[in-house]
Structure formats: structure tokens, C-alpha cells
Design a protein that fits this description.
Helices cover 34% and strands 21% of the residues. The protein is of the alpha/beta class and 242 residues long. The protein has a domain of 169 residues: GTP cyclohydrolase II (Rossmann fold, 3-Layer(aba) Sandwich). It has a seven-stranded mixed β-sheet with strand order 1-2-3-5-4-6-7, with helices on both faces. Helix 5 crosses helix 6. It is globular and about 55 Å long. 36% of the residues are buried.
Length: 242
Amino acid sequence: MTMDSRLQELVERDRSHECPGFGQDHVCVRIVAVAKLPSRFGDFRIVAFWNNRDQKDHIAIVHGDVVGAEDVPIRMHSECLTGDVIGSLRCDCRDQLETALQKIGQMERGVVLYLRQEGRGIGLANKIRAYALQDQGMDTVEANLALGFRDDERDYAVAAHMLQSLGISSVQLMTNNPEKVHQLEQYGVKVSRRLPHLLPPNPHNRFYLETKAKRSGHFIDFTGLPRLQEQSDPVMIEGMPE
């Protein structure tokens, strides 16, 4: 059976899927559509998920045969319009996404989960409000707290259920964020290995990344990481350190 056939079977299976859900919000997802997605980073399949929590469609970008597989390399990427689409230098989101797609596109198999959790879960408008506070001198944690949010409002119950729907029971998680490891394990996904995902900072996001490390506990060591110099400099993907 081909990979396309296996994924299409999951669509048919999930037409009648219902379950108690994951997490305190009882999040339940269904695979609703699958299509081929050739890209500059490799050949993928894109898998669309409905969920009962909100009206947002989360997706899995799949390379190779992952259905029912173990120890699958996974990247969980939260939506960032300003970074992913516009190329903002205030964060490293676009660099993280493109590098993850390139790495996974060169592996035997792997998945990028694209999660609709803009601004660490506070939404786009509130993220812009947080940017304004950061322009006045606050760091990312202080700005979120000033707006009445936790430093990170994201929840990975949707991601855990998406992995379960694909039959993936254990993962190699591409992340620097220990909370992602903790939450996946809390929801029953075995994290067999953490794959560091370190990228060079630029002058606009270095303080943001330092705040991640110092205040949010991210595993980021700037020792040995080159520093991107100017806004006009190209962001190199090949040869980036693990």
C-alpha cells in the first residue's frame, strides 16, 4: 500500500471519529484532507486536521511513510504571520520553520506540525500589542504578563492528538523548548530523543532569544553560534549547527 493510500484511509477512518479528547479542554481532532505538497524543501504530503476546540485548521507536513512509525523526527511549529510570511527579524520563526522543513525533507521520514497558535497563543493583535510594549523596553515575558497573559499560553494537546491520529507513538522532537517535551509526554507521546534546533541570532532578535533562554528555560547556548550581521544579510540554512 502506498503512502498516499495509507493517508487516505485515515481520512475515511476519521469521518466518524469521536473521542473524550486530550487535555483539560478535551481536544479531539480528525484528519479531513490529504494532498501532495512539492516544495523547495522536498516532496511532502499536507494533512489537514479539524478540531473541536476552535475554528482553526492545523496541519501536518509529512515526509516519507510515518503512519504507525516510531521515533519519528518531529518539529512542532506555532504559526507566526510576521515571521513566517513577512520575514520579520524580531523573531527566529521563519528560520526555524524553513530549517526544519529542509532537514526533514532530507530524512527518510518526518513531520512538521504547523499549529495555529499565533503569538505564543495570545493571538495576532495581542502579539502586536506585546511588540509595542517591547519597543518601550520590556522583554517578551514582561510584555505578555503586562497584557494579562502567561509568558506562554500555548497548549500542545492538539499536537499530541494529531500524532496519535497518524499512529505515531514516539518521536524525536526537534526543539529547544523543554515545555514542548513535558507537554507531549504528559499527553502520552513518548519523546525518545530531543534534537537541538539552534540558529544564528541577528541584531534584532538576539535579546528575544536570550530572554527565551534566561526566563523561559529554553536550551539555547550562544557559544559558537555565528551572529548574523545586518538586515540585508541572507539567512543561510545549509551548514547550520545542530
